C-alpha cells in the first residue's frame, strides 16, 4: 500500500511539473453557457440601459435582459435607420494573477465577441480594437498586469462594427444579430520561450509534417516530437535542433501503415511537442490529428485517401434558443450525434467558424467539415479579412475533420483572400466559394445553391464537380427530405456529383426575454430546420435517415415468392457490410379495438453480415424460421461497426384483405338489418344504430348510435376529391342478410353502401380518372375539435408527402391530437394532421366515441384535417375537400423558393411531379362507429362509459 502511495505522489509531482512547463489557463468568464461568471455591465440603449448592473459571461446581453433584439434582415425594413440597432456594452471584471506566473508570457484570449471589442487592462489598452465577431483573438498583457494585486479588466463591445465591411459580411444577414462576449475569455501563461502554435499535415501514406512556430527562443536548443496512436503507443519520434531567434521550424516523420481518418473511421493520433534546453523540458504542448489526404481531381470528384467521397451534408448554425450562439459542449455532442443519426457524413459551418469544441467532436465522432469565413452575401475588406483568415486557420488547421475552407457565402467572397488560407494551413486544404449564381466554380468545384433537379442534371454534364453548399431549403415542412431521394440518386450515380449540404439543421428560434420567454423564429425568416430549436425531430429527419442510409434496401413490399433474401447495396465509402450487424424480428401487431398500440415480438434472430464492398451490391440472407409466414410483420435493423443503429426497415406479412377479416372477427354479436326511407333519405338500421344516406347524392348524412339520439358527426361523404358527382341513379336492395344502397353517377363513378349484421357499415366505391391530379380518392367531414387521438396500423408516426414517403415504418401508431405547424411553436411532433401512408386501419378516439375505418385494398393514404406544407400568402399545397380523406394519391411538396411555390413542384424531380392517373380505381372501406362488445376474452380492454358532449 505504501508503494502505491509513493507512486501516486510521484505521479502527482510529475503532473505538476508537466503543468508548470505547459500552457496554464485561468478562466475569467465561465467555460460555456451553463457555467458562467458574473461581471459588471452597462449598456447605452434598450432595456436596462444607462446604469451599471450585473451580467453572466459568456452570454449575449439580449438573453440577459439587456438591449434590444434585431434580426439581420431588419435592414430591409429600416434601411438607413438600421444603425439605431447599434448598442455598446461596457464590461468590468476584477481578477488576480498567481505569483507563480511572474516571468512568464501572459495573454488574454477572447474566443468570440460581438463585435468591435476594445480591451483595457488596468486602464491601458491591450491592443488595437478587434473587429469580427466569430474569431478567436488575443493580446499579450505581460507588461500591464500586477502580481499579487487586484487587476481591472474593462471591455467595450459594440454590437455593430465601425468597419462597414464587417457589418456587410456578418451583421446584415439572414440570421439573428446578437451582442456581447458570447464565448469564453481566459488568461494563458507560458514560459518566455515557448511554442506559440503548430500547423500539421498528416497524409494517408503516413508522412507527417509540422510547422512549429516559436516565440522568445533564447536558450532552448531542441524540440522533441513524439507521435502516439489511440492506445497511447509511441509510433514515431524525432528531435529537431533550434537556434536562438528561431521563429518557425518544420519537422518530418513517417508512420508505417497508419490507421486513416475518415468520417467512417475517425482514427486519431496525438503529437507531443517538447521544447528542451539540453535535457531539461522548458515547454510542452500536444495536438490530436488524423492521417488523411484530400484531393480535388478536376472533372472527376472529391477524394479522401484516394477514394471518391460524396457529401451527405447539412448546414448548421451554432444555436440554442435560450442562449443563442453561446452553447455548451453537450450541445455540440448532441448535434454531431443527430447529424450522424441522419446517416449524414458532412456539415457546413454556416456562416462563420464554430466554437472549438464542435470541431473536436467532429474529429472524434467523424464528420467532414466545411469551415467558413463569414461573408453572408457581402465580403470583408482585404485588410481586415486577412487578419480574420489568419485567426480562423491558425485555430482550426489541425482538425482532420476540416476538409474545406469556404471563403464566404453567396457573393461574400473576397478573391484577394483565397491565397491567404494556405499561408497558415500546411496541408493546403481546398478553398471553395459557396455561391448562389451559376458559373462561379472555384478550384474545380461548383457550389451553386438551390438548383432544381433538371438544372442539376445539366451542371453535372459540365466540366466541374458539383457540390451545392445549400439545397432543398427546409422552411416549414418543405425541402429537407422532400425530393431528396431524387437528388441523391442523381449525385450518387453521376461521376461529377459530390453530394451537397441541405439548408438547414435547426429552426433558429430565439427565446425572447422581452416577450415572456416566447420562442421567436422571426416569421418566415428562421424556421428553416430539419429539427426544431430544441432539436425536436420533424418528418424530414427520418426521411433523410432512410435516404442517406449507407445500407441501401429498396424492397418496399415483400414479393409473393419471398424466401428470406433481401437485396442490398453498400453505399459506404470505406466500410464493408461484413462489419455491420443485421438483426430481424417477427412481430404481431396490436388489434384495432384494443387499447394498446405497437407490436408483440414473436421471435428474433441474426442474419449473417454479407461481404459487400463499398459501392457494390449483394444480398442479406435472414435465415428465417419455417413458420415465418404465420406472423404479421418483419423488422430488419442494421447496426454499424460502432454499435449505432443505421436504420430499421419494416414489412407487413399479411394483406389488407386478411387484416380486414380480423377486423370483422372482433365483432361477435349480430343483429338483423333493415332499411326505411322518406322523401330525402335511405336509413339503414342495425340494432340501435342508424345511418342516413341522401337520395339526391348518395352521401352519408348522419350516424345515430342509439335510440336516445346519441349522434356521431361523421358525415358528408364519400365525396370524390377529383371529378364531379352528378347522380344518375340510386336504389336500395337486400343481399342475403345485408342491406345495400347503390348510387351511380353520370360520369360512371359509383358508390355502394352495405350494412352487415355484425354492425360494420361497408362502403365500396369506384371512380375513373385520366390526367394529372394532385390527389385522388374520397373525403368525409368530421369536426376536428371533437378528436382526441388517432391510432392506426400503417406507416408512421409522421405524416408524408408524395415525394417524402421515406422514413416512416409500419406499426400500430398512436398520436395525440395537436395543431402543430411544422417549424413553428410549440414544436409538438409528430404532427397530428397530414397525409399518412399505407394505412390498413384507422381508429379515431373522439368526444362522441370511436370511429374505426379499415380497407380491403392495399396502399391507402389517410388525410387528417387541414394543414399545409408551406405557409406563404396562402397555404400550399391545396387540400382535398372535406377534412378526413381516404386517398389513392397525394400531392408532392415543394420548397419555399420561388420556382417551387404555387404547387409547381415538378422541377424538383420525378417524385415531385403531380400524379399521372389513367384508369379506374376501386376501394372497399369498413366503418364501425362506437365500441363493440368484445366478449369475455377481451374484458381486460373494457373502458369507462364513453364521453358524450355536454353544453
UniProtKB/TrEMBL annotation:
UniProt KW Hydrolase keyword: yes
MF GO annotations: beta-galactosidase activity; carbohydrate binding
Enzyme type, top EC level: hydrolase
Pfam families linked: Glyco_hydro_2, Glyco_hydro_2_C, Glyco_hydro_2_N
Single Gene Ontology BP annotation: lactose catabolic process
InterPro entries reported in the protein's UniProt record: Bact_Beta-galactosidase (IPR050347), Beta-gal/glucu_dom_sf (IPR036156), Gal_mutarotase_sf_dom (IPR011013), Galactose-bd-like_sf (IPR008979), GH (IPR017853), GH-type_carb-bd (IPR014718), Glyco_hydro_2 (IPR006101), Glyco_hydro_2_cat (IPR006103)
Reactions that this protein is recorded to catalyse: Hydrolysis of terminal non-reducing beta-D-galactose residues in beta-D-galactosides
Signal peptide start and end residues: 1-20
Domain Glycoside hydrolase family 2 immunoglobulin-like beta-sandwich: 204-292
Recorded GO CC terms: beta-galactosidase complex
Domain Glycosyl hydrolases family 2 sugar binding positions: 53-191
Residues annotated as domain Glycoside hydrolase family 2 catalytic: 295-515
Cofactors (names): Ca(2+)
EC number: 3.2.1.23
Family of the protein in this entry: Belongs to the glycosyl hydrolase 2 family.
Assembly mode: Monomer.
Annotated protein name in UniProt: Beta-galactosidase
Native source organism of the sequence: Chryseobacterium takakiae
Highest classification ranks of the organism: Bacteria, Pseudomonadati, Bacteroidota, Flavobacteriia, Flavobacteriales
